[in-house]
Amino acid sequence: MLVQERHKLIIMELESKGNVSVTELKSLLQVSLDTVRRDLAQLESLGKLQRVHGGATSKNNVVTNQAYLQRKISLIDRKQELAGYAVERIKENQAVCLNAGTTNIEVAKKLAARFERLTIISNSLKVVECLAHKKGFTVILLGGILNHDEYSLYGRSIENEIAGFNIDVSFISINAISLEKGLTDFRQGESDVINAMIRSSRQSVVVADSSKFETVSYLNICSLKQIDAIITDSQMDDTLREQYIENGVSIVNAYPNG
């Protein structure tokens, strides 16, 4: 990975978390600790961050959307953990679709760190921002109506665009999952985007931290039978996991040690 790409990922980590350790960056960037420390020193000299013991902290504390930011930083470690497992399903040169959502921001970062040539299709401005530095990626931002709160686009034009693609894997970021109601969400317009993704994808994989299970939001998306798998973090309750498996749902738990 080029130094410019590493610097971009470091800045994005700080924007999402406020601070980051050298150990976390080593894992994200897949480089040595010495390389991470050199990158932090260079970014500090440019006024992009402030180094602290064991890591760095952001110098930019401006918040434009408190609700979105709160979701973005909530359970960030779990989202990063499951995102690492999600990208194991991807191969170089595949077409991957990511809908809007804070978990898919973490998936996008992992894709950028691991691959050199992918086609990424998304309705999320934040996902596209994560990938803008990847010159080998073909990044397609779906056009539609802007949701100012979610930094995403939606509408019939997006559904029609998605229908024109043959997608290898779609990663679906969702607000709530339950055995009774399936996938549900609170975001107007996202339901149609997700269902269009499912119809055009060879594999449809939900990425959701364990806090999302057995919760229900007010907009119905689809049943669990319409998706191929759910990837979640290592904190999911074992009994609940078994209930989902018994109901025919493929659950993939991420585990920190493999």
Word description of this protein:
This protein is of the alpha/beta class. The chain is built from ten helices and 15 strands. It has helices at residues 3-17, 22-29, 33-45, 66-73, 76-86, 102-114, 125-131, 156-163, 190-200, 238-246; strands spanning 19-21, 49-52, 55-58, 95-98, 119-122, 138-141, 145-147, 152-154, 167-173, 176-178, 182-185, 201-207, 219-222, 229-232, 251-253. Strands 6-5-4-9-12-14-15 form a seven-stranded parallel sheet, with helices on both faces. Helix 2 (22-29) crosses helix 3 (33-45), helix 5 (76-86) packs across helix 6 (102-114) and helix 8 runs parallel beside helix 9. It is globular. The two termini are 24 Å apart. 40% of the residues are buried.
Shape: globular
* Radius of gyration from the alpha-carbon trace, in angstroms: 18 Å
Could you spell the SSE succession in H and E letters?
Answer: HEHHEEHHEHEHEEEHEEEHEEEHE
- What distance separates the N and C termini? 24 Å
Let me know the average pLDDT. Answer: 89
Largest pleated sheet:
7 strands, parallel
Specify the helix fraction band: 25-40%
Number of helices: 10
